[in-house]
Amino acid sequence: MNGGIREIPVYLFTGFLEAGKTKFIQETFEDERFNNGENTLLLVCEEGEEDYDRSKFKGVMGSFHIEKIESEADLTPEFLASLQKKYDIDRAVVEYNGMWTIDALYAALPPGWMVYQEIMFAEAGTFFAYNTNMRSLVVDKLKSCELVVFNRADKDFDKMAAHKIVRAVSRRTNIAYEYKNGEVEYDEIEDPPPYDMNAPIIEVKDEDYAFWYADFSDKPENYKGKTVRIKVMVAKNKALRDNEIVVGRRIMTCCIEDVQYKGIICICDNAAKYKTKDWIVLTARIEFEPHRLYHGQTGPVLYANTARKTESPENDIASF
Q1: How many Cα atoms sit within 13 Å of 174 on the Cβ side?
Q2: Are 211 and 168 in the same domain?
Q3: Nearest CA to 209 among 229, 225, 227?
Q4: Are both 118 and 144 inside the same structural domain?
Q5: Which of 318, 273, 265 is nearest to 293 (CA)?
Q6: Could you tell me what percentage of the chain is helix, strand and coil, using 3-state DSSP and rounding each to the nearest 5?
Q7: What are phi and psi of 114, to 5 degrees?
Q8: What is the pTM of this model?
């Protein structure tokens, strides 16, 4: 419960017709680990070639109800709330129509309904044609999914081309290839940083901050001596010297429970003018050296060239 509002986890499966959504959802319900007595609502937003076989569902099933949604216009908070009340559901599973926009669904979720998982399915043999002819709908499905599965792929499937299409939309989405023989392979193509490492000043956008922080932490040799421009929040305490501040962002690695402020020492001539929770645009040289606040260990130290106050970013939590 959240402020008296009951939370309903939503498991969202998107993709175009015959992409494999129904098969995956059927197999999910056949996994006893997914069923622990929850009352479940399955929203089917398109007619596929396969039907659901409840006789194969495993685990402890609560009540199970299927509702077919014929039109995108039928998706409203009032209608979904009425289904929640009618069936007293604990969770919802959505097989979404590939021709409808994701925003329409998110706008229709009643209070308390939260998308816990979003997976897109793409039929390997038709994906590139969809991307050519219905690019906006492909982008729509890729923009928020945490995983895209390319189904029924041949061994010569052009993974690099698929990878580039996904990465042009999202750097956070995981990619998997399921071959016709049932073998599954996860994408391990390494992406270059989303900024120019050879520029005189590396410009890190707000949405790329978590990547930058993780990458320079893992590969300090690539960043030593480089100059970076970032938007960061100031933190101060009595242990700092007059020309020192701590700068950083709150970073979410996987879920809201693990959000932590990750701070970096910054040597700044006008440090005294800033206070805790000020946001600044900082241009600084990155060095890695011992510092007393790192308990004598080597860590990142930013030497400020310029700093100016600014507004906080639209989302002050940086994530992957």
Answers
A1: 9
A2: no
A3: 229
A4: yes
A5: 265
A6: 30, 35, 40
A7: -130, 130
A8: 0.68
Measure the CA–CA gap between 213 and 180, rounded to whole angstroms. 39
| Alpha-carbon span 4 to 15, nearest angstrom | 34
User: In this predicted model, what pLDDT tens digit does every residue of 76-118 receive, in sequence order?
Assistant: 999 999 999 999 999 999 999 999 999 999 999 999 999 999 9
Domain annotation covers residue 31: yes
Residue 240 lies in a domain: yes
Q: Which domain holds residue 145?
A: 8-186
Residues 66, 244: Cα–Cα separation, whole Å: 60
Write out the two tokens for 182. Answer: 């049932």
Count the domains in the chain: 2
Question: What end-to-end distance do the CA atoms of the chain give, in Å?
Answer: 27
Residue 49: both structure tokens together: 């070639």
| Domain containing residue 174: CATH number | 3.40.50.300
Asked if residue 146 and residue 117 are part of one domain, the reply reads yes
The predicted-structure confidence for 141-158, as pLDDT tens digits, reads as follows 999 999 999 999 999 999
In degrees rounded to 5, what are phi and psi of residue 71? -140, 145
pLDDT tens per residue, range 20-65: 999 999 999 999 999 999 999 999 998 766 789 999 999 999 999 9
